[in-house]
Design a protein that fits this description.
The protein has 3 helices and 12 strands, in the order ββββββββββββααα. By secondary structure, it is α+β, with helices and mostly antiparallel strands. Strand 11 and strand 12 form a beta hairpin.
Length: 166
């Protein structure tokens, strides 16, 4: 399965070439998985857990770095989950890195949101508030114990012959 982030005009913004279902209800992006974006391609050196909910206006990447856990939250339309997971990126992100939380790309959102339906803008701004609140109070998926459980699953999954039962 692929994870596909579109621009509001339907063009591809980013495409993760492969994602594997995880026991946690989301998808694993193994280290080295190719990510294509509108500026080229790249990959992550560490495992990433991707989580999306059918009615949520955001999607979370849990970055399981060697010495820390960071989060990259895309504010987006609710995803369409089928053979692939597809959402429209609304050019607004919440970053959680080293215990610091900030909103990124507000300038892009301000510029591009002029062409978005008003309901998208309202939902995007509320999603930022909701995510910041969840981070502040350690709610799912921003709870340290959840990151620990993801790391444990990844260790089982990545050992030779390791398969995680679903």
């Amino acid at each position: 399965m692929r994870l596909i982030s579109l621009r509001s005009d339907g063009t591809v913004h980013r495409r993760w070439s492969a994602a594997e279902p995880g026991r946690f209800g989301g998808w694993w992006i193994p280290p080295g998985t190719l990510v294509e974006d509108d500026g080229g391609s790249w990959s992550s050196p560490y495992p990433v857990a991707a989580i999306a909910w059918p009615k949520a206006w955001f999607q979370v990447f849990v970055l399981l770095k060697t010495d820390s856990t960071d989060y990259y939250v895309n504010i987006c339309t609710p995803p369409c989950i089928g053979a692939d997971v597809v959402w429209i990126d609304l050019d607004l992100d919440v970053r959680v890195e080293g215990g610091r939380v900030w909103v990124a790309d507000e300038d892009e959102f301000q510029m591009r949101s002029r062409g978005y339906p008003r309901a998208w803008c309202t939902a995007a701004q509320q999603a930022v508030v909701d995510v910041q609140h969840a981070v502040k109070f350690g709610a799912h998926p921003f709870r340290p114990s959840y990151a620990d459980a993801l790391r444990a699953e990844w260790m089982l999954r990545s050992r030779p012959g390791g398969t995680v039962l679903r």
